[in-house]
Amino acid sequence: MLNNKDAVCFGEVKPPPKMLKAMAALVLGLSVAVCAGGASAASHREAPFITEQPKVDATDLYVFKSYEPGRESFVTLVADYYPLQDPAGGPNFFPLDSNGLYEIHIDNNGDAKEDITFQFRFTNTLANVALPIGTKQVAIPLIQAGQVTAGDSSKLSLTQTYTVDVVRGNRRSARSAVTNNNGGGTTFTKPVDNIGQKTLPDYEAYAKQYLYDIKIPGCATPGRMFVGQRKDPFVIAVGRIFDLINLDPLGGVNANRDDLAGKNVTALALEVPVACLTDGSEPVIGAWTTASLRQGRLLIPNAEAGFNKSQKAGGAWAQVSRLGMPLVNEVVIGLKDKDNFNSSKPQKDAQFLDYVTNPTLPALIQLLFPAAPAPTNLPRKDLVATFLTGIKGLNQPVKVTPSEMLRLNTSIAPTTAAGQKNLGALAGDLAGYPNGRRPGDDVVDISLRVAMGVLCTVNDGNKYGFDCTAADAPAGTAQLTDGAYVDSSFFNQTFPYLKTPLPGSPN
After folding, report:
1. 247 pLDDT band (50/70/90 cuts)?
2. CA angle centred on 234, ends 343 and 431, rounded to 5°
3. Domain boundary assignment for the chain
4. 453 phi/psi in degrees, rounded to 5
5. What is the maximal distance between C-alpha atoms in the chain?
6. What does pTM read for this prediction?
7. Which residues pair with 188 in a beta bridge?
């Protein structure tokens, strides 16, 4: 397996489209710069309040041109929620919040406002499986009373279903239901979590029956959808990162363990035709995911509570989680504003501008590793381009309002799984992060290098508008890494791409 240096320095880079000549020069320059210098979990519990509401905590967002063969005209959107799921987390496991509203937003004209929103709502249904105990039928204490297989879920005592609506314009305006392309229903089933191999001897076969072909209102071509538990796709030495970066940032690949290797998450995955997401003239889309709860909650005394009746929720929706670009709320936004960021909208992001233009992460790295001085080009226009506007020639819309979101240029063809570079655009793979984000993109290593000024090292003459040069970034060519490796081989090559969740009981 190649290390991160190999991923940048080895391999032939395919010529980019003519419209991306400027970016081609940029990434080729980056490759040379990083090779010459070779001598945070994403949103897992990233803000104080959301640690109290794990069911609505967004962990990761992936937005990329589908690279499954034959699906290149689609965009895959995956929003992961409910972090740090231990596979053995019975007896209730990890249903999503039936009082929550989960959303994926698309801005397709650069104004930092949602133009298309996909809304997910969940419902718990109790089958109340009971066993004859003497002369009585007594409800079981588990969510299953026997083996569950594809086509036979009769032994499940609890199931979770969901609906999906599309809203065009303001997210709280009129909505239209997504329907099943096979039969037209509007209610879909979420597969039960991977309890273990005795209960679910072939989990993937069972889960695949809940991969739906869907009709999306306003779209001529059907899409696809899957909602269910998956192996956590994010790879990071999270314990060492948050212990004052207790690792050698210039150490070798695989030097540190992936602290999420034993965890699952719940994925909301959509595959949508490109034509349904763009406005017809602008190929760049921006995306972010949010979760909201009702503003009011009344707890019901236990004596009066029945199944799913321990609380009553009401009032307007209050946004409690937000995620676009990875790692922003972890290592960019100041502690005092983390809850504020989670409740904010992109069009209000001017309030967070100082965290991007005058970032503290590079200063912390310099404090802990004096041999890696922080960039001196303040304010950091290179970071504004990366996080707030998109990079000119790569994924910046013609008209753009600076705002934090994950931006994808849908006119760039996807890279096959075998051809992907895990350092994305830094390695010449223009279909990768920060042009959208694929599961195999090593966003930790990319973000570390961008934070320390790698973009400045190829900006001589200010030809990319970053207002910085190599002299402003003494550590800009350093091959910074958290030592936890990931690439496209870690994932499936077909929708929804993320791997089967780890079982609660292996055998």
Report:
1. confident
2. 90
3. 4-490
4. 100, 25
5. 86
6. 0.90
7. 162
